[in-house]
Specification:
The complex is a heterodimer. By secondary structure, chain A is mainly α. Helix content of chain A is 76%, strand content 2%. Chain B is built from five helices and three strands, in the order αααβαββα. The chains are: A mainly alpha, B mainly alpha. Chains A and B meet through α1, α2, α3 and β1 of A and α1, α3, β1, α4 and β2 of B.
Chain lengths: 108, 161
C-alpha cells in the first residue's frame, strides 16, 4: 500500500512541475491559467490520492477524500473568476490567437 | 424540508472531518450544523426530491468515471503542449450553445469544461457559454460544441434536471 501511495505522490509532483513550467513558457494570461488550473489541480489530487493509500481509511485519509472535491470546486471557480476579470480589465489575447467571440458581447 | 437535508449533510461532513464518534463531538457538531442550516437553508436547493431518486446516483457514478478519464487525458494534452519545443497552441474564445435549463446543471457543466482538454469557461450569458480554447480545432460551431460539451451534457441532464 505504501508503495502505491508513493507512486501517486511522485506522479502528482511531476504534474505540478509541468504546470509550473507551463506557467512560465506559455504566452498570455489565458493560456497560463490553462496550465495552472489543469496540471496543478490533477497533480494535487494525485498527491491526495497518494495520501489516502499511504494512511488508509483513518482520520488523515478521510480528510484527503474531503479535500479533493473542495479543491476541484475552488480551482475551477477561481480560474473562471480570474479569466473573466482579466478580460473585463482589458487584457488582450496573445498574438497567436485566432478567434474571439466574446469581444462584442455586453459584459455584466 | 430543505433545512433538514442541509442539517444532515453538514453533520455528515462534520463527522467525516473530525473522524471522532464520541458523544461530546456529536453534540458540538449538531449545534454547528443547526446554526449553519438555519442561516444558509434558504439558499440551498429548491426542493429535496431529486436527492431521493436512486437513478441519479447511478448516473453520477458513471459521470465521475468518464470525467476522471477525460481529466487525465486533458492533463497529458496540456503537458504535451507545454513541453513541446515549438509549443503547438492556437488559442481563441468560442461560443457554445447549451441544452441545459437549471442553474446548478449549468454550473457543473462549466466546472467540467474548465477541467477538460484545453478549455476554460469564461462566461455564461443566457444559454450560451463562452469558452477559451487552447487549440481551436475547427471553425464549424456544431463540430466544436460537440467536442467541448457534448460528452458531458447528456449525463448532467440525467443527474441534475
Amino acid at each position: 500500500m505504501e508503495t502505491i501511495g508513493f507512486i501517486f505522490i511522485c506522479i502528482g509532483i511531476l504534474f505540478n512541475l509541468f504546470g509550473c513550467i507551463g506557467l512560465i513558457r506559455l504566452p498570455d494570461v489565458y493560456n497560463r491559467l490553462q496550465s495552472a488550473t489543469k496540471c496543478v489541480t490533477l497533480g494535487t489530487c494525485s498527491i491526495l490520492v497518494g495520501v489516502i493509500f499511504y494512511y488508509g481509511f483513518n482520520g488523515a485519509g478521510f480528510k484527503a477524500i474531503i479535500a479533493i472535491p473542495l479543491l476541484f470546486f475552488a480551482a475551477t471557480v477561481a480560474a473562471h473568476a480570474l479569466v473573466k476579470g482579466a478580460y473585463i480589465f482589458g487584457v488582450k489575447l496573445g498574438n497567436k490567437s485566432v478567434k474571439d467571440d466574446y469581444e462584442d458581447v455586453p459584459k455584466s | 424540508m430543505k433545512y433538514v437535508a442541509l442539517f444532515i449533510l453538514s453533520l455528515i461532513f462534520w463527522l467525516l472531518l473530525t473522524y471522532n464518534l464520541t458523544i461530546p463531538n456529536i453534540i458540538v457538531g449538531s449545534i454547528a450544523s443547526l446554526i449553519t442550516s438555519l442561516i444558509f437553508g434558504k439558499y440551498f436547493l429548491k426542493d429535496v426530491v431529486p436527492f431521493l431518486q436512486p437513478q441519479r446516483y447511478f448516473w453520477l457514478m458513471v459521470y465521475l468515471f468518464i470525467f476522471t478519464w477525460e481529466c487525465i487525458k486533458a492533463n497529458f494534452d496540456v503537458a504535451y503542449r507545454v513541453l513541446h519545443p515549438a509549443m503547438p497552441i492556437k488559442p481563441g474564445i468560442v461560443r457554445v450553445k447549451l441544452g441545459l435549463k437549471t442553474n446548478i446543471a449549468k454550473t457543473i457543466l462549466a466546472n467540467s469544461i474548465t477541467m477538460t482538454p484545453g478549455t476554460i469557461s469564461v462566461d455564461i450569458i443566457g444559454d450560451e457559454i463562452y469558452v477559451h480554447w487552447i487549440y481551436v480545432y475547427s471553425e464549424n460551431p456544431e463540430e466544436y460544441s460537440h467536442k467541448i460539451s457534448g460528452r458531458f451534457e447528456k449525463y448532467i441532464k440525467k443527474i441534475f434536471e
